[in-house]
Amino acid sequence: MKPVHSLPVAAPLDVVRVREDFPLLGRATRGRPLVYLDNANSTQKPRSVIDQTSRFYAAQYANVHRGVYLLSQEATEAYDRARARVAAFLNAKSAREIVFVRGTTEAINLVASSWGRANLGPGDEVLISAMEHHSGIVPWQLACQTAGARLRVIPVDDDGELILEEALRLFTPKTKILSVIHVSNALGTVNPVKELVAMARSRGVPVLLDGAQTISHRAVDVQDLDCDFYVFSGHKLFGPTGIGVLWGREALLDAMPPYQGGGNMIELVTFEKTTYAPLPYKFEAGTTNIAGTLGLAAAIDYVAGLGYDAIAAHESTLLDRVLRGLATVPEVHLIGHPKERVGVLSMTVDGVHPHDAGTILDLEGIAVRAGHHCVQPLMERFGVPATIRASLAFYNTVEECDALVAGLRKCVQVFRG
Ligand SMILES: Cc1ncc(COP(=O)(O)O)c(C=O)c1O
Which regions in the chain score pLDDT beneath 70? Predict the structure, then answer.
């Protein structure tokens, strides 16, 4: 299957034009034009995604895989096309490797629970990193508790990068899986996942990559990454909430027991015994988020239409602008200085609590996140309870970057006089 993101993409990104595709970006908050810089949390939706979703409910709606009537057949075809679209997007070998789930959280829970049940035993080790999102920690903790296994953690250095020598040391004959975040949701670090995969593969250890923060910034080719599982959420890719993707190698998924039982995931049910549907349906019990899958496919079409090269070029201009601006405010301190990063910036401001800074920025119409960003162990590593996080997407502008810097300067003035 040809990866869609390898298609040639011509023009540089015309951000004024692009913003017109996002109705919400035109609104005001607190009487000011909205400056939306909370994209690592969730992204805004282009008109094509909104239209696709409402068109489905208004004109095409029926449940899938259950009806002989035309509407249901059409919905089923659209659902299957959405799966094929995701498969091509990730350069998966087959659409059977694409499991629709609620999001990244459910995808990791699915693997930890199902793969864990079949593969983890007493004394085994699950290797994760110190910069995992809580959804890359807690599901594995639960799986370890059930199996009598234990978590081992690759540490992070002061720049916010994984310490690879430590990773090497932490692989032992008991290591059963490596589960790592591809791009940090708190620091923006792009982890050297190919090196990590190579380390794991040479030891026969499968790898799960959490791509929740990757997918809006960079093309993902699961065959090129050579990992075993890749997971992401639709709502962070300009798509709907409540839909996400688990990609897994077919042989691994095939060997895993079901995650949830119910309708749709079965072949034959008797009171004595049940046989299961083939992939991917074995992992899609019950009625799934059909509208979400269609919206996700529309989001993928939208992003592919812009092209990741154009997106990366524009975001690099934005990142450069913010970093230069922040450097002019001495009271602002960035957490982490990774060599390779995306536009996700965690910071503290001398004398200003992150929540207060977030509130002042909000009054300026600037939406950022203040808190622990679901990475409490990472916050502890850096000795801060919380940070302000600004996160960029391709629809942001240099003027918005400047507004952030001006807003932070205002925070300093308000609190320090
Ligand atoms: C890196 C990472 N992993 C997992 C998640 C959880 O995603 P969701 O809430 O969509 O399941 C997030 C959300 O912020 C994230 O940034």
Answer: 1-10
